[in-house]
UniProtKB/TrEMBL annotation:
Provenance organism: Caldithrix abyssi
Necessary cofactors: a divalent metal cation
One MF term in the entry's GO annotations: RNA endonuclease activity
All residue ranges annotated as the Endoribonuclease YicC-like N-terminal domain in the record: 1-155
Protein name: YicC family protein
Pfam families linked: YicC-like_C (PF08340), YicC-like_N (PF03755)
Residues annotated as domain Endoribonuclease YicC-like C-terminal: 177-291
UniProt keyword Translocase present: no
Key words, A-Z: Endonuclease, Hydrolase, Nuclease
Family from the record: Belongs to the YicC/YloC family.
Length: 291
């Protein structure tokens, strides 16, 4: 069970280059991948996407691949001459405006690191794959490890709330049976207090009152709630995409709790059902973070 929120980073230094891969994700209903690559690495975008899809099912994923020269770099860096001319022109204009006699020097130009670019075209595609893919896989492994840890934490919290929900469901079911009997007796007594007892057929009265009191019976809702709880527990043992299924079951649980609350006439039951709804809502918030 994985959370949809995660972060992973890996880096490697080789052939005078620093390769850094960052992967991060947030919640999303579907799998949405955004890749940011240097232009020279665009040929491997499809392969990176496919590697990611094998490990991630859902979420909004941002991947940033960056390659730069480190201090001991070599011939892979070249001078952007077009940009150099642009910067020289700007410096000359600035010197003229300030009426400064100082000439533009190499020290001034070295303040513009963008003048020096990596010449990745000097590498074969297979060499670049061998350079980037191991770093990407390492970042992906770290990313998934964090998602798994977060998923376990969420699962533990959901399991605790599910146990409380089951306990409250059993409590409501016991009180519901008692409440139905009490409501039946109450309605009978009310009728007898308003009408001459000799003019009432006791059997017919009990039949009519039983029909009315049956409308406050919440046994069926409790049975369905227990069934949903059992199904939810089974789902928590599954691997893969469970977040959507959990959300659907929790919606059904909330529906049963609302029906209980609308049918019962017992204040204690009503208060317990409100607590049940609160636990269901909190579980739904957690489930929406799961893949």
């Amino acid at each position: 069970m994985h959370s949809m929120t995660g972060y992973g980073k890996a880096e490697k230094r080789e052939h005078g280059l620093d390769v850094v891969v960052e992967i991060k994700s947030v919640n999303n209903r579907y799998l949405d991948i955004f890749l940011r690559l240097p232009r020279e690495l665009s040929f491997m975008e499809y392969e990176l996407r496919e590697r990611l899809k094998k490990k991630v099912v859902r979420g909004k994923i941002s991947v940033n691949v960056n390659i730069s020269e480190h201090l001991s770099g070599g011939d892979e860096v070249y001078l952007n001459e077009e940009l150099l001319e642009n910067r020289l022109t700007l410096l000359e204009k600035l010197r003229a405006r300030l009426a400064d006699d100082q000439q533009v020097s190499l020290d001034h130009l070295l303040q513009f690191p963008e003048l020096f670019e990596l010449n990745l075209s000097a590498f074969a595609e297979d060499a670049l794959r061998e350079l980037v893919f191991p770093v990407f896989d390492e970042a992906l492994e770290t990313f998934n490890r964090m998602r798994n840890e977060e998923g376990l934490f969420l699962a533990e919290d959901i399991a605790r709330r599910l146990n409380r929900l089951e306990k409250m469901t059993n409590e409501v079911r016991r009180k519901g049976k008692r409440n139905m009997r009490e409501e039946f007796d109450r309605m009978c007594n009310n009728v007898y207090s308003l009408v001459d007892e000799g003019k009432i057929d006791p059997a017919r009265l009990e039949q009519e009152v039983a029909v009315i009191s049956d409308k406050i019976d919440i046994t069926e809702e409790c049975v369905r709630m227990a069934s949903h709880i059992q199904l939810f527990r089974q789902l928590m043992e599954d691997r893969g995409e469970v977040g959507k299924k959990m959300t659907f079951i929790l919606q059904e649980m909330l529906r049963e709790a609302n029906t209980m609350n609308s049918k019962t006439t017992d204040v204690e039951i009503s208060h317990t059902v409100i607590n049940m709804k609160e636990e269901i809502e909190k579980m739904r918030e957690q489930a929406q973070n799961l893949e």
